[in-house]
Amino acid sequence: MVAPALDTLGMFDATAGLPEQVEEAVLGTGRLPGLPAREAVENVVVLGMGGSGIAGDLVLAVAAPFMSIPVVVLKSYTPPAFVGEGSLVFAVSFSGDTEETVEAATDAASQGAKVVVVTSGGELGRLAQGWGAPLVPVPASIPQPRAALGAMAIPPLLVLEQIGLFPGASQWVHLAVRQLRRRRDQLVSSRNPAAELARRIGRTIPLVYSSGAIGATAAQRWKTQVNENAKTPAFWALHPELCHNEVQGWGQHGDVTRQVFSMVNLRHDAEHPQVMRRFELVEDLLREVVAGMEEVRAEGEGDLAQLLDLVLFGDFVSLYMAAQEGLDPGPVPVLVELKRGLAAR
Description:
5-stranded parallel sheet, 345 residues, 4-stranded parallel sheet, Rossmann fold, 49% helix, 2 domains, alpha/beta, 13 helices
């Protein structure tokens, strides 16, 4: 692996360990007691914020298209009004003390929902015991929530499989692990495409474009990893929606934007044919108003493999961006200060 100049929390090693983390999540989930019967579940709600909240995005992208009931992801304090006895609610919080998730999960439980908790402990872990809720433990040794993607996102998929709502999840996870190993081995070599991409875009603000549910989760993850690991702004948008608004905003200030922004297109096999054309057209329209255009293509068999492949690539890009600027990717002091301010209310 390319040795980082500064990495006090071991984020490089944690990121490189994603394939093994996913495998351990499979073992850690096991056969959970107390799950509802398939016919008793009318909807699925996933609660989570930040690095924990991506678990819900992943369920929405990978499992929801194959499920006969709706899936909703909530990143806030209040669960939807429809949550009740027919709801299966996943409460995902790395620390167990995320105030939005704790409050929303408490409300959901009081409304009669069946709650499954994924956490390393904290208040949410204590509440789960009081509710008699199934609990999937997250290793507290993981340095940051954003480095616990496998530990938090895989258990909901396997629980849905156990209930009978998402058959075949275990096989998709197996295929994803296989692809993650291939990609990881590529990205930790001394010369690799993630490090090269970081070098090209490192002094610019990335605009991450993609499409569909897979692309939405991957692009948002790229954006937030650049924010937290590389300590720099980043933005994301999706085809075809960006073709109805965002593209009109480029060009007026091209002399500025071509010095500031780089476009990164995340491509995958589930793209609509018209979206493929949109990528080409937008590239032609914006080529002169951004500093550069990059493309990363997902590899692997199945939606989960392709999504996690894009995620891992972006995670390493953000870490290499931090390394080349001499930044420590682990600590997030601004976020800590915000939480401290909220706690002082």
